[in-house]
Amino acid sequence: MKVANESGVDVNHEGRYKAIFVCWVLGLGSLVAWNSMLTIGDYYYELFPKYHPSRVLTLVYQPFAVGTMAILACNEAKINTRRRNICGYALFFISTFLLIVVDLATHGNGGVVPYIGICVLVASFGVADALVQGGMVGDLAFMLPEFIQSFMAGLAGSGVLTSGLRLVTRAAFDKTDHGLRKGTLLFLAISAFSEFICIFLYAFVFPKLPIVKHFRKKAALEGSKTVASDLAAVGIETQSDQLVVRMSKKKLILENIDYALGLYLIYVITLSIFPGFLYENTGNHQLGTWYPLVLMAMYNVLDLVGRCIPLVKCLNLESRKGIFTSIIARFLFIPAFYFTAKYADQGWMIMLTSLLGLTNGYLTVCVLTAAPKGYKGPEQNALGNILVVFLLGGIFSGVALDWLWLIGNRSF
């Protein structure tokens, strides 16, 4: 398939749909490890009932993700993107595998020492997330918008996959001895395998696709140094002495402050509710211990649906004012969840959680596909990294604010 670029010259877009699929899988691998930790919260609440696992582990994860991402964003122009992403996926794989090792070594017993070990591995997830998510968004920012959309859909897809697998593994082992633990170990093994697949796809499949090579060569001609290693891996040499004229990071932030703050606020609202509130503040209902798992599953499914909606062009919100106004309107979720948990039944909570996921996914994709338009390759890579810093900063702030729901809770 050939289409014309902005200058009217035909460019080879062969491999476009393969690239979209690979981006989806790579997006899935970017969060499947962390979503696995969130989804097996029921198991960790059984092992560590007094340690608030969903809140503590999330709070451990975020400083490492935000801190590492901030450092990488400041130096993105000098970083080997290929090495960064491969190291990130490898760290995800190793850390997920070690979670299995920790559980087997401790025979599934609770206690402070195993909990600290799990916290250390969760911190490594944060570092891996910063390596991969910032690296991939920056890399895809100078390609087709569909690539970022597919990658972000993959992130949501990881939540759907982990929620679905968790429901299946729990149901399969529910009536057996230590069934919850057996289901968790199988679940983690599947997650580790998916990370290994991502290492292979990024290292050997993605860089060889013609459309990917085209956009990376284009970025190199515009002065980008980050693509040199990926191009070299497929036998394309770039000139390293080219003078790079690009907009400063400060100016990029100022020109896109509404997008950056918007991403921050999206995740402040979402993570102040999900997952801690859903596990600890929704009360007892007919679904019993399955209730938080159902809420998690509904959030993840609708988050994925929301990230796919922008594929329909007439439904893709491109107005900067429209995007920011929609983001501000999400603050209404705070009183809505409070009163729903206090007065309504589980059906209303499931619906509200679904709406939280739908708006989270939809607005995230709208921001990340609209912001890079009109910039050169090196600037798009820098802006992609900057936006991920704000995204992770919003997650961190939301996780911290999530603890406010425990005020007045006697069990705390």
Explain what this protein looks like in three dimensions.
The structure is a single chain. The protein is mainly α and 412 residues long. It is 72% helix and 1% strand. The protein has 17 helices and two strands. Strands 1-2 form a two-stranded antiparallel sheet. Strand 1 and strand 2 form a beta hairpin. The chain is globular. The protein starts with a strand and ends in a 10-residue tail after the last helix.
What is the radius of gyration? 21 Å
Give the N-terminus to C-terminus distance in angstroms: 60 Å
Kindly report the average pLDDT value: 85
Helix-strand string: EEHHHHHHHHHHHHHHHHH
Query: Structural class, from helix and strand content?
Result: mainly alpha
Strand order, largest beta sheet:
1-2
Major pleated sheet = 2 strands, antiparallel
Q: Could you list the spans in which at least 5 consecutive residues all have pLDDT below 50? A: 1-10
Q: Tell how many strands the DSSP assignment holds.
A: 2
> What's the helix count?
17
Helix content: over 70%
* Beta-strand content: under 5%
SSE arrangement:
Blueprint: E1 2-4, E2 10-12, H1 16-39, H2 41-47, H3 53-74, H4 81-105, H5 112-140, H6 145-173, H7 179-205, H8 210-221, H9 228-233, H10 249-255, H11 257-271, H12 276-280, H13 291-308, H14 320-329, H15 333-343, H16 346-370, H17 377-402
Antiparallel strand pairs: 1-2
Task: Give the structure's gist in a few sentences.
By secondary structure, the chain is an all-alpha fold. It is 72% helix and 1% strand. It has helices at 16-39, 41-47, 53-74, 81-105, 112-140, 145-173, 179-205, 210-221, 228-233, 249-255, 257-271, 276-280, 291-308, 320-329, 333-343, 346-370, 377-402, and strands at 2-4, 10-12.
